[in-house]
Structure formats: C-alpha cells, structure tokens
Amino acid sequence: MSTLIARPLRTERLDLLPLRVEHAEEMALVLSDPDLHTYIGGTPDTPPALRSRYERMAAGSPDPAVSWLNWVLHLRAESCLTGTVQATVGPSDDGLTAEIAWVVGTPWQARGIAREAACGLLRWLRDRSVRTVVAHIHPDHRASEAVATAAGLVPTDAWHEGERRWQRTLGR
User: Fold this and answer.
1) CATH architecture entry for 14-169
2) Please, how many CA atoms are within 13 Å of residue 45, restricted to the half-sphere of its CB?
3) For the chain, domain boundaries
4) For 75-110, what is each residue's pLDDT tens digit?
5) Cα–Cα 20 to 30 A to 107, which of 37, 58, 77, 172?
C-alpha cells in the first residue's frame, strides 16, 4: 500500500493547506476557546504545546500502512485560518478506511465551514480509493452531527469511548 500525502485542496471558499509546524501560532488562537473542548475534552494548547503536537503529527504515523493527513482551513475571503480537518487512513477488511475529524474556531462556526471542508475531504478521499469513512461524534454534539449528515455519513449502533460511530461507504 502506498502512503497517502496531504496535498493542498480547494473548495468554494476554503484552501485546505497541509498542516505545517509554522501554523501552530495562528492555530493556537483559532483553537483558544475552552468551549471547543466541551465534547473532545482537554483544554486549549499554548502555541509551544501546539507546535510540539504539530511536529509529531507532521512526522507521520509510525505504522507504514497508516497515513496521517492533516490540513488547516484557510478562509480566502478573510485571509485567515479557521480550523482543521484530518483523516487517518489505513487498511481494513473492505479496502482503505479513513477516520475523519474536523474543528472550526468559535468565531467561524455556523457558517458551513466544517461542512464544506468535510465534503471536500471526502471527495479527495474517494478519488484515492478510500472505501469507508468513519467519524466518532459525541451524542450531544448536534453541530458535528449536522456536518456528518451533510457529508453523507450515517449514525451506526457502534460506540467508541462515549462517541457514536458515523459511517459512509464511498463509491467510485
């Protein structure tokens, strides 16, 4: 299996830029609202802590069969970063499976940015022969459920660490 590499993507309003360590300072501000962590836990990272995390993420998965793909969301109209989208892609029984996640900073929420980024990511994954897409969503996180629904994922009966598994099979 060849490793996938995050490449720049473009949607109607966004540039999805492959994550770089240099994004940490601006992203620390984007992700600084403690309310963002209501459903995912933890607290906002400081710029040095986020830089360290981005260094680990940029180094890639220690498993050569798994690709860590991370992008920051650049809103062209405002010329700023607004959030992230990510996919962890690896082999499964029915081909490649991607576990995806998204986060948008509080000032940019309720504007369709997460939906647009997630849908753009799914198109890119489909073009790379990813068969199954999965997201794990806290059962009280209505905004993330709406994003998953817009991206064509449906809730399953499976749960992982208190979050419901949402899933979609991608066609060619």
Assistant:
1) 3-Layer(aba) Sandwich (3.40)
2) 15
3) 14-169
4) 999 999 999 999 999 999 888 999 999 999 999 999
5) 58
